Amino acid sequence: MNEKKIILFGLYFAIFSQILLGFAQDTFKIALFTTIFSYSDEIYSIILLIYTIFKKGFTEQKRVLTLIILLWCVGLISGINSNFNLLTNSLGAFNFLKGLIIYICLCQYKFSLSDFKYFINLFIAIIPFVIVFYVLDIVIPNLRQLLNFQRIGQTSDFRLGFRSLGGLFSIYTHASLFGLIYFIIYKYYKPKKSQRKWYQILGLLMIIATQKIKDIFSISVVYCLCKIKYVKPISILSIIMAGYVLFELYAIYLPNHYNTYFGRDADTAVRNLMTATSLQIANNHIPLGVGWGKFGSATSAQIYSEVYGKYKLEGLWGLNYEDNHSFMQDTQWPMIFGETGYLGTIIFLLILFMVFAKPLKYYLQDTSNMQYAFPSVLFIYYIICSLGKPVFVAIPHSYVIWGITAIWYSLSTKIPQYAKSKKNRCKHDERKTEDRPCNSIS
């Protein structure tokens, strides 16, 4: 196994270990494996960073690297606003930035199409286990109880008479993430027609079966875009209208859920309170926030932060250190606004623009363009889901989008543009590349 494949296998293990963590921590309660799987993502990012510094240096994406450093500095300086603690600030910064660290490191390596094929085949390899566990979840109604997947929000729920399904994924959002990955792979990168249709359906069903509104809405937008050859203003208008209809149906058929976040109970919903408070923090400390690890982040849930008490949030359901703090990192933007303020938010948005603007531009011009499909579809899905979960900074979602986008950055500098045709034929002479023709990944 060469250097690049070792790096990609490490990335995959860091992602998949979060799925294995459910079994180690909840089902079998094996302390050693729980520790290994819990810290695999941190260990991987640290090793990759050190190795890249000494092996490669940073010659690619220097502007993005500069913005990442600036963002870190903003969170560091912001820490003086809330009883600065070096340990809390350092851990908070690392937890927020480790996905970006993966991105900037992987951009330094020249990945090939064969490397990409190797990486996606790692996800494909577990499909038989995914199917088996979903079948078991269908035929055994209390499977999640038997596996002890009892964490808050992860037990079986009924909506419109249907039971939510998660299969081998102890956390429903992990199931929807892998469903999205399978949908993209079999939509764009597996040419065997006999597999394409059924595995695309599998991916869609994995997302829908979670019954998570944000994921269903996100995949609906993605699916509509995939069906449009060239995205025009009228196409965007049509998608907006379809989204409005979908939202109205959601309000009609799931009134309790709708009222919690958008209706009569919206003012007391913890997620909405976190968002409103983060804006209040940003206004109180213009242009900074309260510093890394202090609000809306996993670190603020692990290490006591006085900010929750200051803004009268501590003790609310989901924001209680003694009992349940699951809502402390429930969404994306309260953490950014609260910890880094308006300045940090602007820098983060600039990073997103610099990384995803080009892939999105070419993808929307030709949605059959395989070269930009993966990072673009992930971004579209993530940017919608970010209203309900911290996908750009939380494992395993962050490693998926930043890792895959970095791989495709490398490929975009190595192979020419795909022709704008349904067959995605390459413009270059195939005799000049070591890889197979770029319209055939498998």
Question: Strands, helices and their partners?
Answer:
Layout lengths: L2 H25 L3 H25 L6 H17 L7 H21 L6 H12 L2 H13 L3 H4 L11 E2 L2 E2 L8 H18 L3 H17 L3 H14 L6 H21 L1 H7 L8 H15 L13 H5 L3 H5 L22 H33 L4 H16 L11 H16 L30
Antiparallel strand pairs: 1-2
Describe it:
The protein is mainly alpha-helical and 442 residues long. Helix content is 64%, strand content 1%. The chain contains 18 helices and two strands. The protein has helices at 3-27, 31-55, 62-78, 86-106, 113-124, 127-139, 143-146, 172-189, 193-209, 213-226, 233-253, 255-261, 270-284, 298-302, 306-310, 333-365, 370-385, 397-412, and strands at residues 158-159, 162-163. It has a two-stranded antiparallel ribbon. It is globular.
Strand residues, percent: under 5%
Output mean pLDDT: 87
Which outline best applies?
A: globular
Helix content: 55-70%
Helix and strand element order? HHHHHHHEEHHHHHHHHHHH
Biggest pleated-sheet summary: 2 strands, antiparallel
Low-confidence stretches: 416-440
Strand order in the sheet with the most strands: 1-2
Terminus-to-terminus distance: 19 Å
Radius of gyration: 22 Å
Q: Could you say which structural class the secondary elements and strand pairing correspond to?
A: mainly alpha
Number of helices: 18
The overall strand count is 2
